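step: validate -> pass
step: tokenize input -> pass
step: predict -> running
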Amino acid sequence: MVAGNRRRTRAVLSVRLTLLTAGACLMVLPFAYMLSTSLKPDRLVLEVPPRLLPSHATVSNYTGAWTSNDFGHYFFNSLLVALATTGAAVLLSSTMAFAFARFIFPGRRLLFGLLLVGLMVPTIMLLVPQFLLAKRLMLLDSLWGLILFYTGGNLALNTFLLRSFFQDIPVELEEAMVVDGAGAWTRFSRLIVPLSRPALATVSIFTFLASWDEFAWALTIINNPHKRTLPIAISLFQGQHATSWGLVFAASVIAVVPVICIFVAFQRQFVSGIASGALKA
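step: predict -> pass
step: emit ->
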């Protein structure tokens, strides 16, 4: 009986390991192909059959991508927009989530319900209304127009996730601070925020990713070449009659580097935030 249970357990573990390995390979393969293609000279980019290990590796695609089409300037534009959006969205959504989680006020459920409705509307459907609003606010062709609308677009999801996490923090901890005379802002900044670092790291990563690689809104409102962002810069390498795929993949690798760095820096908090219920409904 015991031997049978052990065999069954080993079989289940083997199946799980096989599925996880296959899933990991499927996830890693596109990145490996992108990195491999970025190191190939132009004549070998579309070779058949494709080779993951280039026979004549070169970094000319990276130097060409960085120096052409003012790519470096667009990179820093995207970095500025993503960092500003992340800071503003996390600050606003955390305070909103704290209010929904801890305060009782008229219309709280209605407001939170309307917030959730915003999550159900596809972003592309809001493109025209947002453009008209940006035009009235004179935010067209401006990085502020990107930051403002990216921040607004991330508030609903961030507030939903953070509210769930804040509700799991024992109210007794706040009551002890109230006895000592602490106000709402003191409780938020000195208790809620330190205990919620995993959740804040999670929403920070989500917000940074959403603003870093957004393409449609940036393409819609930005006409000034000096204010373009990274996704637009990568699309410029694709011509009407020919495409420099080596430059496209090299630029894509450069664009992925900050995302990987941020995930590595906040990996522990990110995993902890998911495990402790930051994404709990």
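step: describe -> Residues 45 and 90 are 41 Å apart (CA to CA).
step: cleanup -> pass
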